[in-house]
Amino acid sequence: MTSTSKTVLITGGTDGLGKAAALLLARHHYQVFAAGRSAQKRDELERQAHEERLPLRTLEMDVCDDASVQIGVELVLEKGGAIDVLVNSAGVGYMGVVEELRLSDFRRQFETNFFGLLRVTKAVLPHMRTRRSGRILMLSSAAALASPPTYGAYSASKRALEGMSDALRLEMHPFGVDVVLIEPGYIATNFQQMAKELAAPYVEKASQSPYAGVYSGTWTSSERARKKSHTTAEDCARVLLKAVEARDPMPRYPVTPLAKWLSFGKRILPDKVFDALMRKRFQVPRKS
Fold first, then answer.
1. Does the reported pTM lie above 0.90?
2. Per-residue b/e over 9-22, b at no fewer than 16 CB within 10 Å?
């Protein structure tokens, strides 16, 4: 799927992994529409695209709003003529132990990471199905393969996304539409800063929580792993490009060494052994 005539819509396309993918695909002569909510980030990306003379433009889209998604998709179809590739990259992370995480935050987590991506996908599917052509890339996570402590809501949203994508891949096969999961692990982007801001109410109370040790062990381990990771957003973008251009794409593309290890480990290790490794990694001993 390599041609200047191919049009790509990227949700969450003005920041982090989505932005890196938008720039790389545009540099490879795809016509890219990068969607995002922040006017400032859209302007910054537009300026960069103009400086590099890239076939990239941005549009406002809130994946949690029906009207915004419908208007955005119609705009891309009008300006681009088609949507050959949809990259669903929008996402947020609410971190906290299951007992203490507010139900409203659980709902917000799913509204963006699952229902938001589903909303955009459903808006694009009739077009792709009618054309008998298209490719949908879902940005999942290594957290869909294993759920660390405090990641319950985030992991659940990504597992739901994977379950839906597995069914959709089979449903769209008769119509020539490919559905591909991209599974990154730790990659330094603005996602982490946003997650810290969303976790602030839980951080403030963590030291007084019965889960103080769980919070401390998880955050320490996660920060250490993040600092050790050498995978960049551009590395992830190159995997996305590979998935876009593959003649017969794989159902899943793990991105980081961690994601590859988890994918392999979950297949061969019994759950009890895997849990023991997770407890050791995140310093979660049983209380006496």
1. yes
2. bbbbbbbbbbbbbb
Between CA 61 and CA 185 the distance in angstroms is 26
User: How far is 255 from 235, CA to CA, in rounded Å?
Assistant: 8
CA nearest neighbour of 237 among 2, 7, 39, 28: 28
Residue type, 190: N
Q: How many CB atoms lie within 10 A of CB 281?
A: 17
- Residue 212 C-alpha from the chain's centroid: 29
Q: What is the distance between the alpha carbons of residues 286 and 284, in angstroms, rounded to a whole number?
A: 7
Partners of residue 181 on adjacent β-strands: 138, 252
Question: Could you give the count of Cα atoms lying within 13 Å of 22 in the half-sphere of its Cβ?
Answer: 32
On whether the CB atoms of residues 87 and 18 are closer than 8 A, the answer is yes
The answer on pLDDT for 45 being more than 70 is: yes
Q: Which of 125, 93, 135, 95 is nearest to 112 (CA)?
A: 93
Q: What is the C-alpha to C-alpha distance for residues 127 and 186, in angstroms, rounded to an integer?
A: 34
- Exposed e or buried b per residue across 41-78, where buried means at least 16 C-beta atoms within 10 angstroms of its C-beta: bbeebbeebeeeebbbbbbebbbeeeebbeebbebbbe
Distance CA 284, CA 213 (A): 7
How does pLDDT run across 78-121, given as a tens digit for each residue?
Answer: 999 999 999 999 999 999 999 999 999 999 999 999 999 999 99
The catalytic residue among 151, 154, 211, 215 is 154
- Cβ pair 255, 239 in contact under 8 A: yes
Average pLDDT (225-254) is 92
Is 211 an annotated catalytic residue?
A: no
